[in-house]
Design a protein that fits this description.
10 helices, single chain, nine-stranded parallel β-sheet, globular, 43% helix, TIM Barrel
């Protein structure tokens, strides 16, 4: 399994860089960031909290780190044109010497769309649009000149140069990760993604992963060819009362709090249901030296599962 950190972009850029550099130095496998312009006013933060822009942060991480994979979890397709994303991704991938994973999602957060006057189609239309979106990015990644005539997007002899360079474990260049939990999004991931992601504890991931398996089998694809990652809020603590307060406070978001053994048991169950990568948001872990200590504690918990 791989283990990655997810620094919250509702904090100073110096803190984001500190988390990323610490992870890079201490053996973690990746650094992911969310793609939102503000909080949702609920589980994902206050609307008023200043929020860093994800693509700029990722380009900074490309040169601030040396070893970890980096990527957005996930870029919102409703407010980022696929041709612009493809060009940005290749440049950032080259800045990182081939460490970018391009996480893409259909978009969901209503308040940022409303504030900026950006259309947020109904879910069905959003998924249909997103299917075209991923195909457009693929064509721009792979074809010298790309044509596409869809309902939502059109390309005419479109160039996207330079191309990303293949590397170890990524013969096709930049891997595409699709984030989503609904049946249609998972079926889309089976057809079009190199990796799939959703929030979830092991039982939820097992059920949704089985849907992905069936989607792959329906099109003759080896299910093992799609990487699977998940994230949950993790808080290492020996204080059982604190652990209960934390999980109650963040419910219904996926969360595990408690001893190292309890967290390790959950990681073992994720491994059993086929999770390839566990992503750890930093928001519950404090700041400064406290956060680095928590990150190091989790690294020790994860060590037996590495590889």
């Amino acid at each position: 399994m791989r283990f990655s950190v997810w620094p919250n972009l509702m904090q100073p850029v110096e803190d984001v860089l500190d988390v990323a550099r610490h992870a890079d130095r201490t053996g973690w496998d990746g650094v992911w960031v969310a793609d939102h312009f503000m909080g949702d006013g609920a589980g994902f933060g206050a609307v008023e909290t200043p929020t860093l822009e994800s693509t700029a942060v990722l380009s900074a991480l490309a040169v601030a780190t040396e070893r970890v994979r980096i990527g957005p979890l996930v870029l919102g397709a409703t407010y980022r044109h696929p041709a612009v994303v493809a060009n940005w991704a290749i440049t950032t991938d080259r800045l990182s010497s081939g460490r970018l994973v391009l996480g893409l999602g259909a978009g969901w957060q209503r308040n940022e769309h409303d504030q900026y006057g950006i259309d947020l189609p109904a879910v069905g239309d959003r998924v249909t649009r997103f299917s075209e979106y991923v195909r457009v990015v693929r064509r721009l990644f792979e074809e010298p000149t790309a044509d596409f005539d869809g309902q939502w997007f059109r390309l005419s002899g479109a160039r996207c140069e330079p191309k990303a360079e293949p590397g170890p474990g990524r013969p096709g260049g930049i891997p595409i990760l699709v984030g989503g939990k609904g049946d249609r999004m998972i079926a889309l991931a089976a057809r079009q993604a190199d990796e799939w992601n959703m929030w979830g504890l092991p039982d939820v991931i097992a059920e949704r992963s089985a849907v992905l398996d069936r989607g792959c089998e329906a099109i003759g694809r080896d299910p093992a060819s799609v990487g699977r990652s998940t994230q949950a809020l993790l808080l290492p603590t020996e204080d059982d009362a604190r652990a209960r307060r934390f999980t109650d406070a963040v419910a219904p978001r996926a969360a595990v709090a408690g001893s190292a053994d309890r967290i390790a048991d959950t990681v073992a169950r994720w491994a059993e249901v086929g999770v390839d990568e566990v992503i750890v948001p930093d928001s519950p872990l404090g700041r400064g030296s406290e956060r680095r200590d928590h990150i190091d504690t989790l690294a020790e918990v994860f060590a037996p599962f590495r590889g």
